[in-house]
Amino acid sequence: MIYWQLKVIIILTFNLRYMERGFLYPILRSNKTVFTFKDLFLMWNGINVNTAKKRVNYYVHTGHLYPIRRGMYAKSKEYDRFELATRIFTPAYISFETVLGKAGITFQYYSQIFVASYQTKEIVVDGHKVAFKTLKNTILTNSTGVEARENYSIASPERAFLDVIYLNKDYHFDNLSSLDWGKVNAILPVYEDKKNITSRVNMYYRSAKE
Predict the structure, then answer these.
(1) Where are the domains of the chain?
(2) Distance CA 26, CA 34 (A)
């Protein structure tokens, strides 16, 4: 009797661990570092929403998932913060001062991550400041000058430059020498009110060449 009880316990334990590995496998093999609840639910095809919620809570409790904010999770604390910033509100891409600073076009340091989105908002997520700036939908969804990386999209310096002057009539850039003006002109048709933005581009071009 004891033998059969032990056998049942061993089989149940094995099956439970097998199921856990089965649920974790698509997460571990994914190149993503940040997941929404919807991502996880779709990965676990065939289970209902309540079961998926229980599974997520279990993995958070056991340390297999790191909770970033409500409905968002990571494999660990070492997730990609650019990926996080562009998953909060979609569509979205990294732009503005975040890109310009990395390109040496602006010198001022900003701790927040600047994101082009459909709304203007600044939030703090897991200690990271994220500043969203609104672009019209026709601009936001146009991928010209936006690089699609593995887990997020990011503007080229030329696209970020145009995003900034589209939203700001008067903006100080510290160093425009690294801009490819041919690329700037190629991206210009993305923007509405092209006449005004073109005049501003020409002003900055003349200033850069002086």
Answers:
(1) 2-74, 81-209
(2) 13
